[in-house]
């Protein structure tokens, strides 16, 4: 049987790491093709080259694959290079939007990457599994790129899968699920693929097509039921445009209600695709928040970036959200082509008028986007091709009106009241004068950071053998973990007790000793300790 190891590369906490949906779809495709698959998740586990080598050697894969976006591309490519060193006879693949649209540079810079899966991957992976040992056969697999000597071969374009219901559900059983549940971010699903819009800064249309292909409400509800059975209660619907079809949304909400599925969910939408009836129906089925990409408060800018919306539509959608009582979020981009202080001020004026939650991101001209490929047509200069900087959290472009530092200074000045308010709330908590809601906000943030340290440093796994007595073991663990995370003993004990109560962490007793482990994972053994020490 063909053995496939898929690798989830590290992802920073401030980017809200959640179970890797695309990689789980890839795993399901490999499994459907008859392969044995493991998923080495370094999003919620510590990554070291030694650990990677140990885990790959133990599995001995025939195929090693990963997927990434631009901001973690370099890290993912480095890990795939380490994997090739550990398993030199394995075939290495990379997928995802960055590799799909930066093929030549990726293959040139990383000789350890044998092939790139372009765009929608499932059918490509299925065909690859059957013939991967014969490289001459790769030419007949649509949707791939690879080297043939000094030449880069790009095969024919892969047609999009028209019936998404034919896809197996994502293989989330391969993930360390207890770790994700402890971290607390929503788990993502898709109800369709495709984006009919032409925004110049986005890859959605090129990655998954302009025609929106929907999964059936029944199939989506099946997946939701499976997630609820796994213990997830918060779901993010990650469609590029969930509200592309009102009829389809209404049908899905009806299916959710008919089955009595109780969960909270969020969506990405557009201001010109919602109305009062739709929002009320979504809320009745459990939808708690809607995110709108607004990008700019300047009419000419919206036209320039081909956003396809108007200011009046933004104001109407926000008013509807206020009226029905659904939480709404507006996303703005700073540093769009031709950006000036005046256009940024119009964005601020718009977000002040609509009075919904908002956030500013900085333009990141990803490979494959229109704004990058046709930059000569725009008032824009890109100052870096360091992909680590493409996280939309810093300015890497300038216009004829604004430098990167001026763009950042404007956004920081606008966000200063928010940052100051958060600092004030934290200070009130320290003084004991915070409200209950403020205390919960600070406690939740503190808990999230503490748990992420446990996860991405494997602190729980590294605890030494404990006394078999549960109370003594917990006291010892609390003292150790508090010191490693620079947390208080009280908070560490409170959090560990909660993890044990929810059964996301388990204490395994063996004779006179015991070990802590995340639920579903075997506790560390003396043998593995010696291996790690070596």
Describe this protein's structure.
It is globular and about 70 Å long. Helix 1 (21-32) packs across helix 6 and helix 10 packs parallel to helix 11. The chain has 3 domains: 3-154, Response regulator (Rossmann fold, 3-Layer(aba) Sandwich); 186-402, Aldolase class I (TIM Barrel), CATH 3.20.20; 459-533, Arc Repressor Mutant, subunit A (Orthogonal Bundle), CATH 1.10.10. The two termini are 31 Å apart. The relative contact order is 0.08. The chain is built from 20 helices and 20 strands. A hairpin with a 2-residue loop joins strand 6 (144-148) and strand 7 (151-154). Helix content is 43%, strand content 17%. The chain has a 7-stranded mixed sheet with strand order 2-1-3-4-5-6-7, with helices on both faces. It has a 6-stranded parallel sheet with strand order 8-11-12-13-14-15. Strands 18-20-19 form a 3-stranded antiparallel sheet, with helices on one face. The chain is an alpha/beta fold and 534 residues long.
Describe the structure concisely.
This protein is an alpha/beta fold and 534 residues long.
- The averaged pLDDT comes out at 95
The structural domain count equals 3
Number of helices: 20
What is the fold named in CATH at topology level of the largest domain?
TIM Barrel
The helix fraction, in percent, is 40-55%
- Our estimate of the beta-strand percent is 15-25%
What sort of overall outline do the alpha carbons produce when their principal axes are compared?
A: globular
Largest sheet: 7 strands, mixed
């Amino acid at each position: 049987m063909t053995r496939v190891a898929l690798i989830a590369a590290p992802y920073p906490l401030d980017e809200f790491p959640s179970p890797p949906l695309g990689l789980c779809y890839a795993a399901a495709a490999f499994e459907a093709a008859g392969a044995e698959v493991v998923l080495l998740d370094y999003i919620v586990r510590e990554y070291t080259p030694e650990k990677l080598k140990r885990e790959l050697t133990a599995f001995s894969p025939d195929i090693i694959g990963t997927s990434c976006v631009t901001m973690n591309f370099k890290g993912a490519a480095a890990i795939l290079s380490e994997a090739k060193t550990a398993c030199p006879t394995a075939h290495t693949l990379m997928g995802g939007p960055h590799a799909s649209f930066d093929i030549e540079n990726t293959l040139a810079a990383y000789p350890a990457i044998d092939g790139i899966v372009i765009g929608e991957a499932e059918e490509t992976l299925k065909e690859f599994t059957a013939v991967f040992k014969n490289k001459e056969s790769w030419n007949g697999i649509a949707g791939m790129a690879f080297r043939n000597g000094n030449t880069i071969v790009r095969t024919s374009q892969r047609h999009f899968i028209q019936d998404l219901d034919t896809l197996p559900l994502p293989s989330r059983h391969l993930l360390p699920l207890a770790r994700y549940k402890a971290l607390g971010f929503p788990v993502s699903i898709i109800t369709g693929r495709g984006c009919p819009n032409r925004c110049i800064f986005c890859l959605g249309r090129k990655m998954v097509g302009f025609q929106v292909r929907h999964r059936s409400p029944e199939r989506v509800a099946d997946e939701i039921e499976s997630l609820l059975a796994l213990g997830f209660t918060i779901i993010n619907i990650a469609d590029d445009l969930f509200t592309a079809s009102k009829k389809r949304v209404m049908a899905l909400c009806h299916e959710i209600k008919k089955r009595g599925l109780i969960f909270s969910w969020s969506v990405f939408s557009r201001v010109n695709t919602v109305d009062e009836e739709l929002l009320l129906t979504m809320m009745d089925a459990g939808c708690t928040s809607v995110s709108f990409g607004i990008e700019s408060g300047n009419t000419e800018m919206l036209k320039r970036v081909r956003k396809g919306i108007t200011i009046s539509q933004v104001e109407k959608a926000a008013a509807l959200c206020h009226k029905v009582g659904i939480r709404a979020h507006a996303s703005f981009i700073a540093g769009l082509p031709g950006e000036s202080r005046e256009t940024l001020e119009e964005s601020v004026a718009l977000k002040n008028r609509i009075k919904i939650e908002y956030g500013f991101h900085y333009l990141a001209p990803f490979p494959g986007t229109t704004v990058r490929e046709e930059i000569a047509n725009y008032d824009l200069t890109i100052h870096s091709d360091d992909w680590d900087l493409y996280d939309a959290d810093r300015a890497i472009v300038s216009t004829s009106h604004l430098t990167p530092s001026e763009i950042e200074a404007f956004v920081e000045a606008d966000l200063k009241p928010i940052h100051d308010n958060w600092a004030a709330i934290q200070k009130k908590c320290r003084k004991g004068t915070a409200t209950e809601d403020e205390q919960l906000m600070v406690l939740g943030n503190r808990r999230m950071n503490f748990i992420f340290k446990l996860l991405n440093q494997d602190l729980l796994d590294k605890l030494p053998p404990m006394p078999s007595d549960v109370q003594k073991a917990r006291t010892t663990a609390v003292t150790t973990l508090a010191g490693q995370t620079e947390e208080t003993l009280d908070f560490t004990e409170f959090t560990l007790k909660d993890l044990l109560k929810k059964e996301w962490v388990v204490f395994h007793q063996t004779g006179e000793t015991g070990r802590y482990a995340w639920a579903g994972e075997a506790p560390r053994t003396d043998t593995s300790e010696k291996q790690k020490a070596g």
